[in-house]
Specification:
By secondary structure, the chain is mainly alpha-helical. It is about 70% helix and about 0% strand. Strands 1-2 form a two-stranded antiparallel sheet. The longest helix has about 30 residues.
C-alpha cells in the first residue's frame, strides 16, 4: 500500500477550504467535461458534408473522444495521487480548452479528430474532483458533495443535448466548440482561485510500461466494441482486436502485480468491495446509456411509423434535460440514504429505480409526457447509483490511492456505456421495419433495447448484493498511522490528524517498503 505524502507548508496546516465554493466549482468542471458526450450529436449527420469526408471517417470524431478518455482517465487519477490532484485537474481542463479551440478552428477531418481526442483527455476531471473532495471537505459534507460530483457525469450529458441542438440550429457549427472552450476557460480560472491543492501524495515513479500496456489493451477493446458493427463482428479486424485486448491486458496485469509502484494496484482493486462495485458500475453504465440511445430516436422518428413522435432534435433534448436536473436533486437524497443505511443499499435502490423506469418506458411510449416521466425516473435512479459508487470505492481504499481508484471506477462506467452503444446498434440494425424506401428500427427493436436496459439495472442490483456490508460506511476501516497523519479521507477540515495541533506530516515510504506492504495486504 502506498503511503500518503503531505507537503508541509508553514506549520503544516492549511485553512479549511470554503466547502460550498469548492463543491460548486468542482461540480461545474464535471458538468463542463461531461458536455463533451453530447456536444457533437446535433451535427453528426452533417459532419461528412461539413468536413468533406466519408461518414465512416467522420465517425472518428466520436470514437477518438471515447478512446482518449479511456486511456487518460486512469492515468490522470494515478498522476493526481502522485503529484497533486488539483494540478492534474488543471492540466485536464487545459486539454479541454485546447481541444475545443482546435475543433472550433477546423474545417477538415484531421484537426477535428485531434480536437475531439484532446477533449477526451479531460475526462479525468470528475474522478479527480471526487478525490479532492475526500481530501479537503469536512466529513459531514463529503457524502452529498461526492454524490453531486459523480452525478455531474449524467447531468452534463442530459443538459448538453438541448444546448448543443439550440446552438447548432441558430449559429455556425463552430460555435459549439467555441462555447465549450469558453466554459472550460471559466473552470480553468475558478479552480486555482477556489480549490486547494490536496496534500495527500504518494510520490514515487510513474509506471510508464504499465501505462502503455493499459492504453494498448483498452484501445483494442473499446475500438472493437465501438467499431465492430461497422467492420463486422466476425471480421478479422474485430476478432483480432478482441484477441489482442485479452492478451495485452493479461500481460499488463502480470506486470502490474510484479512492479513495485504499479499504475493500478490490482491487489487493492481485487478487494471484494472494490471489485464488486466496479462490476456493478459496468452494468449501471450500460443501463444509463440505453436511455440516451432509444428515447431521442423514438422522439424524432416520423409519426407515420406509428410509434415515432416526429419531434425535432431540440425537443428531444429538452425532453431529456429534466433527467439531469433530477440527478442533481437526488444527490443529497443519495447521501442521506447512504449515511443511514450504507451506500450498498443506496446502489441497490438506485438500480431498482432504473429498472422500474425502463419498465415504464416499455408500457408508456406514445406521448411526450411519457418520455419526460420515464427520463426523470431513470435519472433519479442514476442519481442514487452514481452517488453510492464513489462512497463504496473510497471506503475501501486508502486516501493515497483515491484518485486512481475513482478513475478506474469511472472507466468501468465508460466500458458499460460503450457496450450499450454496440449492443443497441446491433439490435436496432437487425430489428427493422420498412418505411418507404428506407429501413427504420422497429417498435419491437426499441422495446428489446429497453428491456435489456432494465435487465442491466437488475444485474447491477444483483451484483451489488454481494458487496460486503461491513464496509458500507465511509472510513469504516482505519487508515494506517502514516496515512492518517496527513491523508485522512475527510481532509484537514474534517477533523483529521493532519489538522490536529502538532501533527507531524506523513513521510513517504521507500518503494520497496510500499511494495512489501502491498504484498502483505494482498
Amino acid at each position: 500500500m502506498s503511503h500518503a505524502h503531505s507537503r508541509p507548508g508553514g506549520d503544516g496546516r492549511s485553512a479549511p477550504p470554503r466547502a460550498d465554493a469548492v463543491v460548486a466549482v468542482l461540480a461545474f468542471g464535471g458538468i463542463v467535461v461531461s458536455l463533451m458526450q453530447t456536444l457533437v450529436i446535433p451535427i453528426v449527420p452533417e459532419l461528412p458534408r461539413l468536413l468533406d469526408a466519408p461518414a465512416s471517417d467522420t465517425a472518428w470524431a466520436v470514437t477518438a473522444t471515447l478512446l482518449a478518455a479511456a486511456v487518460a482517465t486512469p492515468m490522470t487519477g494515478r498522476l493526481g495521487d502522485m503529484y497533486g490532484k488539483r494540478r492534474m485537474l488543471l492540466i485536464s481542463l487545459v486539454m479541454l480548452v485546447a481541444g475545443s479551440v482546435t475543433a472550433a478552428l477546423s474545417d477538415s477531418l484531421v484537426p477535428m479528430i485531434a480536437g475531439r481526442a484532446l477533449q477526451g483527455l479531460a475526462s479525468g476531471v470528475i474522478p479527480l474532483g471526487i478525490s479532492i473532495m475526500r481530501d479537503e471537505l469536512p466529513a459531514e459534507r463529503l457524502g452529498s458533495a461526492t454524490a453531486l460530483m459523480s452525478a455531474s457525469l449524467g447531468v452534463g450529458g442530459a443538459l448538453g443535448l438541448p444546448a448543443a441542438a439550440l446552438i447548432a440550429d441558430h449559429f455556425d457549427w463552430h460555435a459549439l466548440f467555441w462555447a465549450s472552450a469558453a466554459l472550460g476557460a471559466v473552470a480553468l480560472v475558478l479552480v486555482p482561485l477556489v480549490v486547494p491543492e490536496s496534500r495527500v501524495r504518494t510520490g514515487g515513479r510513474f509506471d510508464l510500461v504499465g501505462g502503455i500496456g493499459m492504453a494498448a489493451g483498452l484501445v483494442s477493446l473499446l475500438l472493437a466494441i465501438s467499431k465492430g458493427a461497422d467492420w463486422g463482428w466476425g471480421s478479422g479486424t474485430t476478432v483480432g482486436l478482441f484477441a489482442a485486448a485479452v492478451v495485452v491486458l493479461l500481460v499488463w496485469g502480470r506486470w502490474e502485480l510484479r512492479v513495485a509502484e504499479p499504475l493500478v494496484d490490482l491487489r487493492t482493486t481485487a478487494r471484494r468491495q472494490v471489485l464488486v462495485t466496479n462490476l456493478a458500475s459496468i452494468a449501471v453504465g450500460f443501463a444509463m446509456f440505453a436511455m440516451s440511445l432509444v428515447i431521442p430516436q423514438l422522439l424524432q422518428l416520423p409519426e407515420a411509423t406509428g410509434y415515432g413522435l416526429g419531434r425535432s432534435l431540440l425537443v428531444a433534448g429538452l425532453t431529456m434535460a429534466p433527467s439531469g436536473l433530477v440527478m442533481m436533486a437526488t444527490a443529497p437524497l443519495s447521501a442521506a440514504l447512504s449515511k443511514s443505511r450504507g451506500p450498498k443499499i443506496t446502489l441497490m435502490v438506485g438500480a431498482l429505480v432504473v429498472a422500474a423506469g425502463y419498465g415504464l418506458n416499455i408500457a408508456l411510449m406514445s406521448e411526450l409526457w411519457h418520455f419526460v416521466l420515464v427520463t426523470c425516473v431513470i435519472g433519479a435512479g442514476i442519481g442514487f447509483t452514481y452517488g453510492a459508487m464513489p462512497a463504496l470505492i473510497m471506503s475501501a481504499v486508502p486516501a493515497s490511492e483515491t484518485g486512481a481508484a475513482n478513475s478506474l471506477n469511472t472507466l468501468m462506467r465508460s466500458i458499460g456505456t460503450s457496450t450499450a452503444s454496440a449492443v443497441a446498434g446491433v439490435i436496432l440494425a437487425q430489428m427493422t421495419t420498412a418505411f418507404g424506401p428506407a429501413e427504420l428500427p422497429s417498435r419491437d427493436g426499441f422495446k428489446v433495447v429497453l428491456a435489456i436496459g432494465a435487465g442491466a439495472a437488475l444485474l447491477a442490483f444483483a451484483v451489488a448484493s454481494f458487496i460486503p456490508r461491513q464496509r458500507d460506511e465511509v472510513q469504516s476501516e482505519p487508515e494506517p498511522e502514516s496515512e492518517a497523519a496527513g491523508a485522512s479521507p475527510t481532509g484537514p477540515s474534517g477533523g483529521s490528524a493532519a489538522g490536529a495541533e502538532g501533527a507531524e506530516p506523513a513521510v513517504r515510504a521507500p518503494a520497496a517498503e510500499r511494495a512489501a506492504g502491498a504484498r502483505a495486504e494482498g
